[in-house]
Amino acid sequence: MLALCQSPGADGELGAWPVSALVGPGRGADPPPPDPTLERVRALADQGAAALEAGDPLAAVGAWTQAYYALPPGEQHDRLRADLLRRLAAAHDHAYDVDGDITHLETAVELLSAYLEVLPVDDVADRELIAEDREHADARLDQARAAIRDAQIEQQQNRSAYANARVRRMFTPNEKRPMYTIGMAAASMDVAAVMEHIGEPERAQKMRRRRRGQIAMYALGGALWAGGLALDIVAFRGFGEAPLGQSAALFAGGTTAILISSGMLIGAPYLSEVYMEEENLEQIERYNQTLQREYEIQNPNTIWSRREPDARSRLSIQSIGPTPLSSGAGLSVRGAF
Protein backbone atom coordinates (compact mmCIF):
# COMPACT_ATOMS: atom_id res chain seq x y z
CA MET A 1 0.00 0.00 0.00
CA LEU A 2 1.36 3.42 -0.91
CA ALA A 3 2.10 5.61 2.09
CA LEU A 4 1.37 9.33 2.14
CA CYS A 5 5.01 10.23 2.69
CA GLN A 6 6.38 13.72 3.20
CA SER A 7 7.15 15.45 -0.05
CA PRO A 8 9.96 18.02 -0.35
CA GLY A 9 8.53 21.49 -0.63
CA ALA A 10 5.44 20.73 1.50
CA ASP A 11 4.65 21.94 5.01
CA GLY A 12 4.73 18.79 7.10
CA GLU A 13 3.09 15.72 5.71
CA LEU A 14 1.49 15.38 2.30
CA GLY A 15 -1.87 16.23 3.82
CA ALA A 16 -0.79 19.88 4.08
CA TRP A 17 -0.31 22.16 1.10
CA PRO A 18 2.68 24.44 0.40
CA VAL A 19 1.27 27.77 1.53
CA SER A 20 3.70 29.80 -0.54
CA ALA A 21 2.57 28.02 -3.68
CA LEU A 22 -1.05 28.90 -2.99
CA VAL A 23 -0.70 32.56 -1.98
CA GLY A 24 2.46 33.46 -3.91
CA PRO A 25 5.61 35.22 -2.66
CA GLY A 26 5.00 37.89 -0.06
CA ARG A 27 8.24 38.53 1.83
CA GLY A 28 8.25 42.08 3.20
CA ALA A 29 4.96 42.93 1.51
CA ASP A 30 1.28 42.54 2.14
CA PRO A 31 -0.03 39.21 0.90
CA PRO A 32 -2.13 39.44 -2.24
CA PRO A 33 -5.86 38.72 -2.03
CA PRO A 34 -6.70 35.01 -2.17
CA ASP A 35 -7.30 33.52 -5.60
CA PRO A 36 -10.81 31.96 -5.73
CA THR A 37 -9.56 29.17 -8.00
CA LEU A 38 -6.72 28.25 -5.67
CA GLU A 39 -9.07 28.46 -2.70
CA ARG A 40 -11.33 25.95 -4.41
CA VAL A 41 -8.34 23.71 -5.10
CA ARG A 42 -7.36 23.93 -1.42
CA ALA A 43 -10.90 23.02 -0.33
CA LEU A 44 -11.01 20.03 -2.68
CA ALA A 45 -7.59 18.89 -1.51
CA ASP A 46 -8.69 19.07 2.14
CA GLN A 47 -11.92 17.24 1.25
CA GLY A 48 -9.95 14.42 -0.39
CA ALA A 49 -7.57 14.13 2.56
CA ALA A 50 -10.50 13.92 4.98
CA ALA A 51 -12.21 11.26 2.84
CA LEU A 52 -9.06 9.12 2.70
CA GLU A 53 -8.58 9.43 6.44
CA ALA A 54 -12.21 8.37 6.94
CA GLY A 55 -11.61 5.22 4.86
CA ASP A 56 -13.33 6.35 1.66
CA PRO A 57 -10.59 6.29 -1.01
CA LEU A 58 -13.10 6.49 -3.86
CA ALA A 59 -14.36 9.83 -2.55
CA ALA A 60 -10.75 10.97 -2.19
CA VAL A 61 -10.10 10.04 -5.82
CA GLY A 62 -13.08 12.14 -6.90
CA ALA A 63 -12.08 15.20 -4.85
CA TRP A 64 -8.41 15.13 -5.85
CA THR A 65 -9.27 14.58 -9.52
CA GLN A 66 -11.42 17.72 -9.44
CA ALA A 67 -8.63 19.62 -7.71
CA TYR A 68 -6.10 18.51 -10.33
CA TYR A 69 -8.21 19.74 -13.22
CA ALA A 70 -9.15 22.94 -11.37
CA LEU A 71 -5.51 24.04 -11.05
CA PRO A 72 -4.79 26.90 -13.44
CA PRO A 73 -1.97 26.43 -15.96
CA GLY A 74 1.49 27.77 -15.22
CA GLU A 75 4.85 26.57 -14.02
CA GLN A 76 4.25 28.11 -10.59
CA HIS A 77 1.67 25.37 -9.96
CA ASP A 78 3.74 22.41 -11.21
CA ARG A 79 4.65 21.39 -7.66
CA LEU A 80 0.98 21.28 -6.63
CA ARG A 81 0.09 19.44 -9.83
CA ALA A 82 2.72 16.78 -9.15
CA ASP A 83 1.61 16.58 -5.52
CA LEU A 84 -1.96 15.85 -6.63
CA LEU A 85 -0.72 13.11 -8.96
CA ARG A 86 0.93 11.38 -6.04
CA ARG A 87 -2.13 11.83 -3.85
CA LEU A 88 -4.28 10.24 -6.54
CA ALA A 89 -1.87 7.32 -6.90
CA ALA A 90 -2.09 6.65 -3.15
CA ALA A 91 -5.89 6.94 -3.20
CA HIS A 92 -6.19 4.47 -6.09
CA ASP A 93 -3.89 2.08 -4.22
CA HIS A 94 -6.22 2.25 -1.21
CA ALA A 95 -9.29 1.90 -3.45
CA TYR A 96 -8.02 -1.44 -4.75
CA ASP A 97 -8.13 -2.77 -1.18
CA VAL A 98 -11.77 -1.67 -0.96
CA ASP A 99 -13.34 -2.99 -4.18
CA GLY A 100 -10.59 -5.20 -5.70
CA ASP A 101 -10.78 -3.45 -9.07
CA ILE A 102 -7.41 -3.97 -10.74
CA THR A 103 -7.80 -0.78 -12.76
CA HIS A 104 -7.00 1.16 -9.57
CA LEU A 105 -3.52 -0.39 -9.46
CA GLU A 106 -3.01 0.22 -13.18
CA THR A 107 -4.00 3.87 -12.68
CA ALA A 108 -1.67 4.20 -9.67
CA VAL A 109 1.29 2.98 -11.72
CA GLU A 110 0.45 5.41 -14.54
CA LEU A 111 0.10 8.34 -12.13
CA LEU A 112 3.42 7.62 -10.44
CA SER A 113 5.10 7.41 -13.83
CA ALA A 114 3.57 10.77 -14.75
CA TYR A 115 4.74 12.18 -11.40
CA LEU A 116 8.32 11.19 -12.17
CA GLU A 117 8.10 12.93 -15.54
CA VAL A 118 7.13 16.29 -14.04
CA LEU A 119 9.67 16.20 -11.20
CA PRO A 120 12.85 18.24 -11.72
CA VAL A 121 15.86 16.15 -12.63
CA ASP A 122 17.87 17.53 -9.70
CA ASP A 123 15.17 16.55 -7.20
CA VAL A 124 17.02 13.35 -6.35
CA ALA A 125 15.43 12.62 -2.98
CA ASP A 126 11.86 12.87 -4.19
CA ARG A 127 12.60 10.93 -7.38
CA GLU A 128 14.05 8.04 -5.36
CA LEU A 129 11.03 8.06 -3.07
CA ILE A 130 8.55 7.99 -5.96
CA ALA A 131 10.56 5.29 -7.75
CA GLU A 132 10.18 3.09 -4.67
CA ASP A 133 6.44 3.75 -4.59
CA ARG A 134 6.14 2.84 -8.25
CA GLU A 135 8.05 -0.41 -7.74
CA HIS A 136 5.69 -1.23 -4.89
CA ALA A 137 2.65 -0.46 -7.06
CA ASP A 138 4.09 -2.53 -9.91
CA ALA A 139 4.55 -5.49 -7.57
CA ARG A 140 0.96 -5.23 -6.33
CA LEU A 141 -0.26 -4.97 -9.91
CA ASP A 142 1.62 -8.13 -10.91
CA GLN A 143 0.17 -9.98 -7.92
CA ALA A 144 -3.35 -8.84 -8.78
CA ARG A 145 -2.99 -9.91 -12.41
CA ALA A 146 -1.66 -13.31 -11.34
CA ALA A 147 -4.62 -13.73 -8.97
CA ILE A 148 -7.06 -12.87 -11.76
CA ARG A 149 -5.42 -15.40 -14.09
CA ASP A 150 -5.58 -18.09 -11.40
CA ALA A 151 -9.25 -17.31 -10.76
CA GLN A 152 -10.06 -17.51 -14.48
CA ILE A 153 -8.25 -20.85 -14.80
CA GLU A 154 -10.09 -22.23 -11.77
CA GLN A 155 -13.42 -21.02 -13.15
CA GLN A 156 -12.75 -22.68 -16.51
CA GLN A 157 -11.76 -25.92 -14.79
CA ASN A 158 -14.95 -25.86 -12.73
CA ARG A 159 -17.04 -25.31 -15.87
CA SER A 160 -15.29 -28.16 -17.67
CA ALA A 161 -15.77 -30.49 -14.71
CA TYR A 162 -19.47 -29.58 -14.52
CA ALA A 163 -19.94 -30.13 -18.26
CA ASN A 164 -18.15 -33.49 -18.11
CA ALA A 165 -20.32 -34.56 -15.19
CA ARG A 166 -23.47 -33.61 -17.10
CA VAL A 167 -22.35 -35.56 -20.16
CA ARG A 168 -21.51 -38.62 -18.07
CA ARG A 169 -24.93 -38.40 -16.44
CA MET A 170 -26.65 -38.19 -19.82
CA PHE A 171 -24.82 -41.14 -21.33
CA THR A 172 -24.68 -43.37 -18.25
CA PRO A 173 -27.64 -45.80 -18.14
CA ASN A 174 -29.91 -45.18 -15.18
CA GLU A 175 -31.29 -48.49 -13.94
CA LYS A 176 -34.14 -46.83 -12.07
CA ARG A 177 -35.13 -44.46 -14.89
CA PRO A 178 -34.23 -46.19 -18.17
CA MET A 179 -36.58 -44.06 -20.28
CA TYR A 180 -35.08 -40.85 -18.94
CA THR A 181 -31.62 -42.12 -19.82
CA ILE A 182 -32.62 -43.06 -23.35
CA GLY A 183 -34.45 -39.79 -23.94
CA MET A 184 -31.50 -37.73 -22.74
CA ALA A 185 -29.15 -39.87 -24.80
CA ALA A 186 -31.17 -39.32 -27.97
CA ALA A 187 -31.28 -35.56 -27.47
CA SER A 188 -27.60 -35.44 -26.56
CA MET A 189 -26.58 -37.39 -29.65
CA ASP A 190 -28.69 -35.01 -31.72
CA VAL A 191 -26.86 -31.96 -30.38
CA ALA A 192 -23.49 -33.72 -30.52
CA ALA A 193 -24.05 -34.49 -34.19
CA VAL A 194 -24.48 -30.80 -34.88
CA MET A 195 -21.59 -29.68 -32.71
CA GLU A 196 -19.26 -32.16 -34.36
CA HIS A 197 -20.63 -31.28 -37.82
CA ILE A 198 -21.47 -34.93 -38.46
CA GLY A 199 -23.31 -35.08 -41.76
CA GLU A 200 -24.23 -31.40 -41.64
CA PRO A 201 -22.45 -30.37 -44.90
CA GLU A 202 -24.40 -33.03 -46.81
CA ARG A 203 -27.64 -32.02 -45.11
CA ALA A 204 -27.03 -28.36 -45.91
CA GLN A 205 -26.34 -29.24 -49.53
CA LYS A 206 -29.59 -31.19 -49.73
CA MET A 207 -31.49 -28.28 -48.24
CA ARG A 208 -30.00 -25.93 -50.84
CA ARG A 209 -31.00 -28.33 -53.62
CA ARG A 210 -34.48 -28.54 -52.13
CA ARG A 211 -34.71 -24.76 -52.05
CA ARG A 212 -33.59 -24.47 -55.67
CA GLY A 213 -36.11 -27.13 -56.71
CA GLN A 214 -38.87 -25.33 -54.85
CA ILE A 215 -38.01 -22.03 -56.54
CA ALA A 216 -37.91 -23.74 -59.93
CA MET A 217 -41.32 -25.27 -59.29
CA TYR A 218 -42.75 -21.89 -58.36
CA ALA A 219 -41.26 -20.32 -61.49
CA LEU A 220 -42.51 -23.09 -63.77
CA GLY A 221 -45.95 -23.07 -62.16
CA GLY A 222 -46.19 -19.29 -62.47
CA ALA A 223 -45.20 -19.36 -66.13
CA LEU A 224 -47.64 -22.19 -66.85
CA TRP A 225 -50.43 -20.36 -65.05
CA ALA A 226 -49.77 -17.17 -67.03
CA GLY A 227 -49.70 -19.14 -70.29
CA GLY A 228 -52.97 -20.86 -69.47
CA LEU A 229 -54.61 -17.55 -68.64
CA ALA A 230 -53.43 -16.13 -71.96
CA LEU A 231 -54.91 -19.11 -73.81
CA ASP A 232 -58.24 -18.64 -72.04
CA ILE A 233 -58.32 -14.95 -72.97
CA VAL A 234 -57.60 -15.79 -76.61
CA ALA A 235 -60.30 -18.47 -76.53
CA PHE A 236 -62.90 -16.09 -75.09
CA ARG A 237 -62.08 -13.47 -77.68
CA GLY A 238 -62.29 -16.08 -80.45
CA PHE A 239 -65.79 -17.26 -79.63
CA GLY A 240 -68.07 -16.20 -82.43
CA GLU A 241 -65.23 -15.29 -84.76
CA ALA A 242 -62.92 -18.33 -84.98
CA PRO A 243 -64.21 -21.84 -85.56
CA LEU A 244 -65.92 -23.21 -82.48
CA GLY A 245 -63.64 -26.23 -82.25
CA GLN A 246 -60.52 -24.09 -82.28
CA SER A 247 -61.82 -21.78 -79.55
CA ALA A 248 -62.94 -24.74 -77.45
CA ALA A 249 -59.53 -26.36 -77.81
CA LEU A 250 -57.78 -23.16 -76.76
CA PHE A 251 -60.09 -22.77 -73.77
CA ALA A 252 -59.61 -26.38 -72.73
CA GLY A 253 -55.84 -26.10 -73.02
CA GLY A 254 -55.70 -22.85 -71.10
CA THR A 255 -57.95 -24.13 -68.35
CA THR A 256 -55.90 -27.31 -68.06
CA ALA A 257 -52.69 -25.30 -67.81
CA ILE A 258 -54.19 -23.11 -65.09
CA LEU A 259 -55.35 -26.12 -63.10
CA ILE A 260 -51.99 -27.87 -63.39
CA SER A 261 -50.00 -24.75 -62.51
CA SER A 262 -52.29 -24.01 -59.56
CA GLY A 263 -51.64 -27.48 -58.26
CA MET A 264 -47.90 -26.95 -58.66
CA LEU A 265 -47.98 -23.63 -56.82
CA ILE A 266 -50.13 -24.98 -54.02
CA GLY A 267 -48.31 -28.29 -53.75
CA ALA A 268 -44.73 -26.98 -53.84
CA PRO A 269 -44.51 -26.35 -50.07
CA TYR A 270 -46.12 -29.70 -49.30
CA LEU A 271 -43.73 -31.52 -51.60
CA SER A 272 -40.91 -29.76 -49.79
CA GLU A 273 -42.29 -30.90 -46.44
CA VAL A 274 -42.56 -34.46 -47.74
CA TYR A 275 -38.93 -34.29 -48.84
CA MET A 276 -37.87 -33.00 -45.43
CA GLU A 277 -39.97 -35.64 -43.73
CA GLU A 278 -38.09 -38.30 -45.66
CA GLU A 279 -34.83 -36.70 -44.57
CA ASN A 280 -36.05 -36.70 -40.95
CA LEU A 281 -37.11 -40.33 -41.16
CA GLU A 282 -33.68 -41.30 -42.46
CA GLN A 283 -32.01 -39.40 -39.64
CA ILE A 284 -34.36 -40.89 -37.05
CA GLU A 285 -33.52 -44.33 -38.38
CA ARG A 286 -29.82 -43.62 -37.93
CA TYR A 287 -30.45 -42.51 -34.34
CA ASN A 288 -32.51 -45.63 -33.67
CA GLN A 289 -29.70 -47.79 -34.99
CA THR A 290 -27.29 -45.98 -32.70
CA LEU A 291 -29.62 -46.51 -29.75
CA GLN A 292 -29.89 -50.18 -30.60
CA ARG A 293 -26.13 -50.57 -30.93
CA GLU A 294 -24.94 -48.43 -28.02
CA TYR A 295 -27.75 -48.96 -25.48
CA GLU A 296 -28.66 -52.60 -26.23
CA ILE A 297 -32.21 -51.83 -27.33
CA GLN A 298 -33.86 -54.75 -29.14
CA ASN A 299 -36.58 -52.65 -30.79
CA PRO A 300 -36.00 -48.94 -31.42
CA ASN A 301 -39.71 -48.14 -31.06
CA THR A 302 -40.50 -50.36 -28.08
CA ILE A 303 -37.78 -50.19 -25.44
CA TRP A 304 -36.58 -53.50 -24.01
CA SER A 305 -33.56 -53.08 -21.76
CA ARG A 306 -31.48 -56.24 -21.65
CA ARG A 307 -30.18 -55.20 -18.27
CA GLU A 308 -33.75 -54.82 -16.98
CA PRO A 309 -36.01 -57.21 -18.93
CA ASP A 310 -39.13 -56.13 -17.02
CA ALA A 311 -38.68 -52.47 -17.86
CA ARG A 312 -40.75 -51.61 -20.90
CA SER A 313 -41.82 -48.25 -22.21
CA ARG A 314 -42.47 -46.44 -25.44
CA LEU A 315 -39.94 -44.32 -27.31
CA SER A 316 -41.52 -42.16 -29.99
CA ILE A 317 -39.36 -39.67 -31.87
CA GLN A 318 -41.81 -37.54 -33.83
CA SER A 319 -39.62 -34.99 -35.57
CA ILE A 320 -36.14 -33.58 -35.82
CA GLY A 321 -35.52 -30.08 -37.08
CA PRO A 322 -33.17 -27.10 -36.98
CA THR A 323 -33.14 -24.88 -33.90
CA PRO A 324 -31.43 -21.44 -33.63
CA LEU A 325 -28.96 -21.11 -30.74
CA SER A 326 -27.11 -18.07 -29.33
CA SER A 327 -23.79 -19.41 -30.66
CA GLY A 328 -25.02 -20.85 -33.96
CA ALA A 329 -27.59 -23.48 -34.86
CA GLY A 330 -28.61 -26.87 -33.55
CA LEU A 331 -31.19 -29.59 -33.93
CA SER A 332 -34.22 -30.26 -31.78
CA VAL A 333 -35.80 -33.65 -31.09
CA ARG A 334 -39.52 -33.87 -30.39
CA GLY A 335 -41.23 -36.94 -29.12
CA ALA A 336 -42.00 -39.06 -26.06
CA PHE A 337 -39.11 -40.68 -24.22
Structure write-up:
This protein is mostly helical and 337 residues long. The protein has two domains: 33-149, Tetratricopeptide repeat domain (Serine Threonine Protein Phosphatase 5, Tetratricopeptide repeat), CATH 1.25.40; 172-336, no CATH class. 69% of the residues lie in helices and 7% in strands. The strands form two sheets. It has a two-stranded antiparallel ribbon with strand order 1-2. The chain has a two-stranded antiparallel sheet with strand order 3-4. Helix 5 runs antiparallel to helix 6 (124-171) and helix 8 (200-238) runs antiparallel to helix 9 (244-294). It is elongated.
> What does the main sheet amount to?
2 strands, antiparallel
Query: Total helix count?
Result: 9
Proportion of beta-strand residues: 5-15%
Low-confidence stretches: 3-28, 191-201, 297-315
First CA to last CA: what distance?
A: 61 Å
Q: Oligomer, anyone? A: single chain
When the domains are counted, the total is 2
The string of secondary-structure elements, in order, is HHHHHHHHHEEEE
Average of the residue pLDDT scores: 62
Outline of the structure:
With 337 residues, this protein is mostly helical.
Descriptive terms for the model:
2 domains, single chain, about 70% helix, about 5% strand, 9 helices, about 325 residues, mainly alpha, elongated, two-stranded antiparallel sheet, Serine Threonine Protein Phosphatase 5, Tetratricopeptide repeat
